[in-house]
Amino acid sequence: MTTAYLDVFVGISGDMLLGALVDAGCPLEAMTAPLAGLPGDLHLESQEVHRGSLRATQVTVSAHEPEHGAHHHHHPPHRSYRELAEILAGLTLSPRVREQSERVLRAIAGAEAAVHGVPIEEVHFHELAGLDTLVDIVGACAGLEALGVEQVISSPLPLSHGSIQTAHGLLPVPPPAVMELLRGVPTRPVDVEGETVTPTGAALAVTLSESIGAAPEMILRRVAAGAGQREFPGTANVLRVLLGDRLDSRAALEGGEKEPGEGSALQTEALSVVETNLDDMNPEILPALMEALFRAGALDVWLTPIQMKKGRPATLVSALAGPEDVEAIAEALLRNSTSLGARIMPCARRCLPREMAEVQTPWGPVQVKLGRLGGRIVTASPEYEDCVRLASEAQVPVKQVYATALGEASKLS
Question: Considering only the top CATH level, what class is 267-351?
Answer without folding.
Answer: alpha beta
